[in-house]
Amino acid sequence: MARAGVWGFWRQMGRLAVPGLTRASGAKSFEFRISNFEFSFRLTGPMYRLLPRLGLALVALLVILLAGVIVARVLFTRYLHSEAFRQALGQGAANALNANHAEFAPLEFDGSMVYGEKFRATRDDGGGFSSIDADQLRATLDWHGMLHHTVQVDEMAIQRVNIEPPATGPAVAESAPGVSATPAPIGFEPKGWTVDLRKTVINEANWHWSDDPPGGITGTALTLTPDGQNAWVIAAQGGTLQAAGWPALDLDTASMRWQSPTLYINSASLHNGSSRLTVTGSVEERQSVNLRVQLDGVDVQPLEARDWRERLTGRLTGEATVQAPLGTPDAAREVTVSGSLAMVEGQLTALPILDEIGTFTHTERFRQLELTRASADFTRTPDRLEVRNMVVESEGLIRVEGSYTIVNGQIDGTFQVGLTPATLQWIPGSQDEIFVDSRGGYRWTPMRLTGPVDHPVDDLTPRLVAAAGNSLIQGAQGLEGTVKKAGEGVLDLLLH
Q1: pLDDT band at 189 (very low <50, low <70, confident <90, very high)
Q2: Is there a smaller number of Cβ atoms within 10 Å at the N or the C end of the chain?
Q3: 166: helix, coil or strand?
């Protein structure tokens, strides 16, 4: 308000004074009455003269503050586009990832939105990963955190992330195209900077944890949200899992939690066709993997040796525990698997030995053997396979029970073999001298199996030949060949 306007205002207000108004030297008093309300105030001489000047000072102060905000904004914007800020941001990311180095490609700003083409982090201590490469990043920032040396990211969206397996020895990863891996200069000290990442959405994540044999997951979508100190809740959907000895598995969903240094898998559901697996467990960084896998109707054919895929069909159910060390060059070959499995809808076909047994025993069912039961407990280490409580049965024909171990290519097994009386009638002397125990509709005899896996030796065949008697020597010789082939066929079934 202009000076004349201020004096005019007070003069007009002076005319409103009611009779009895007093004017002391250098002072004015005013009284007002509006309806039934009455109030008054008094200005002394110095205040009366100072009031216009205060108004001018207030206007000047506002102008100065506005100019300061504009200048600060310009300086802050320059800092955001500076190399120093980009290095501070990279240092904060490196701290969060426990990486040796992390760096963003040049960033673009649009208000609170930040865009970047690439990000790369490297690590050579054998933990977690050797490199992380991210493409097409978009982040929403809250600039208030900068006042506390904190880069607060309300949401980070990434189009693609590639994670490579941990280095097995000290190495320096090469830089991604367009991203420098030069450490921060000595003159820049980013100490104290942290990254406060509130949420991350990754459209496509590719994580390779083993090169030989190949293992990893590709094309999965991830959502990560913080959950307390150094903890993250991770939701995954879609993608393909590759693991040694297994066909490719499609990931349905996975719920996980990262609490440094351990990744907890609350539940992961995968499938391949009608085969379904559920995985729970934990992965401790640079220490070990402990997983529990539940199988539901898993097709056995992709897990078999190639020459058995047309001979044995069926679906596996049960559960297995997988344990493996991490951080060693041969970690992928030091896996231990144990559990209990059962086969449903099992069938043996296209085996010449079954045709021979069917011809010898006059039983056509041997030509296409339906496995009404096949189950076992097992433990497999890198140099040993142990099978316990094994039961293989084609109801009404044959049942085999027992256990065996394979160490360094040598098998040592003890079995009980049960055949029905109808089958044994075609083997002279077998029921009187060999299959003498009777239970569950079968006649039973023990069998020991030893020797190299490729050419094992059993103690049942000689006893069957001897039981045939000299009067049937020619038939016994034919029986000997048939029984030997039968033993080899049963062994192949157990091992494959």
Answers
A1: very low
A2: N
A3: coil
Q: What counts of helices (H) and strands (E) characterise the chain?
A: 8, 26
Q: Residue 175's pLDDT is what?
A: 40
What gap in Å lies between CA 457 and CA 312, rounded to an integer?
23
d(CA 167, CA 130): 5
Q: Which residue has the higher pLDDT, 78 or 493?
A: 78
CA 381 from chain centre, in angstroms, equals: 24
pLDDT in tens, 297-319: 999 888 877 777 788 899 999 99
User: CA–CA separation, 199 vs 235, rounded Å?
Assistant: 12
Phi and psi (nearest 5°) for 440? Answer: 60, 25
What is the C-alpha to C-alpha distance for residues 372 and 391, in angstroms, rounded to an integer? 10
Taking each helix axis as running N to C, give the angle between helix 83-97 and helix 45-80, from 0 to 180 degrees, rounded to the nearest 10. 70
Extents of the domains making up the chain: 26-80, 83-172+197-209, 351-496
Phi and psi (nearest 5°) for 177?
-55, 130
- Which token pair is 26? 């250098």
Give the residue, 425 or 437, on which the prediction is more confident. 437
C-alpha span between 202 and 138 (Å, rounded): 11
Segment 19-65, tens digit of pLDDT: 444 444 445 554 545 445 555 555 555 555 555 666 666 766 776 77
Question: By the 8 A CB rule, do 460 and 447 touch?
Answer: yes
Q: Are 447 and 454 in contact (CB under 8 A)?
A: no
**Cα 343 to chain centroid, rounded:** 28
What Rg value do the Cα atoms of the chain yield, rounded? 41
Q: How many CB atoms sit inside 10 A of residue 5's CB?
A: 9
For 171, the 3-state DSSP assignment is coil
* 213 and 201 Cβ atoms separated by less than 8 Å: no
- CB atoms < 10 A from the CB of 134, how many? 24
The per-residue pLDDT for 278 is 97
85, amino acid identity: F
Count of Cβ atoms closer than 10 Å to residue 304 Cβ: 15
Q: How far, in Å, CA of 96 to CA of 84, rounded?
A: 19
Q: Which range has the worst mean pLDDT, 142-151, 224-233, 378-387?
A: 142-151
* Tokens matching residue 293: 């896998």
